[in-house]
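Let's practice the habit of predicting before peeking. Look at the sequence and jot down your guess about where helices and strands might fall. Then scroll down.
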Amino acid sequence: MRIVKKTNGMGTEVVFDFDSNPYPRGIIVEGFGMLVRRPLIFASAGIWNLKFNVQGHNVCCQFAKVANASGKWFLVVNIHAGHKLEHFEQAVAIRKCMAEYVTEQHDDANYIGSVIGGDFNAHLYRANAGGEAVTVAWEVRGPEGVFDFDLGGERGKGQMRKLRKLLRDESESKRKEWASVRGAEAAARVDAALLEFMLLQCDGACSPLVQVTAAKKGKEWWLNLPEKYEAATARKCSSIDHVLVSHWWDPQGLCVLFGKANWSRTSSVSDHPIFVATVVPKLPPKGK
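Done guessing? Here is the structure:
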């Protein structure tokens, strides 16, 4: 196995062979990790390697069933998602896998919800306020009614058309050109992913997730910022990393801890800070 990168000529260049000696520069291989504090335990954990489109592309994510002493449990998923259309396809595949996992536990009475966090590589969609429509597969409905992509019923037909157009436009845009998909391939992949998204909703397996922020209550702390950066500026740098929870949980606040360096300058802000989200888990309502 090896790590490669694309060159300007769209070829590839070897960065590191895994059977090579990394001395003297070293190499960091990215991975997933989770920790819990007692009395919580990992009842089970592992990696999902999911095929997410007809092209046979795969995405990996880490999952864990976290339980307390009384047997109540919640599902945690740690992701590093793709860009543009791939993000939507991956989100649908991961949400489908999450629903299947909960069903396979045969323990609805003790299931209390889900947490999804990580590097989403996408800004959450906020209708007229920007963001990327590919993320609606996570939230389904936006905060304060800013959007609602429930695809069921008569209203759902119009929402399906609207979402299809948004996804096609994003997929074919020049932004992140290297991740763009266009033409017949884009149309086919968008339609296939939208169908899966609609079926998940019809099966009741795609309940909305909510972002943990301090917009409604609690406090938001922005720590360890370089002197010349304000929290508002830093917020823009961090907006592709998110913590989402089941919509019946109660988000309390968020602490964002920045390193004072990115890849190239010690005077800049890391685009991947540490998020510490405070939430109060609650039992799901009937017909969640």
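How did you do? The CA atoms of residues 29 and 274 lie 19 Å apart.
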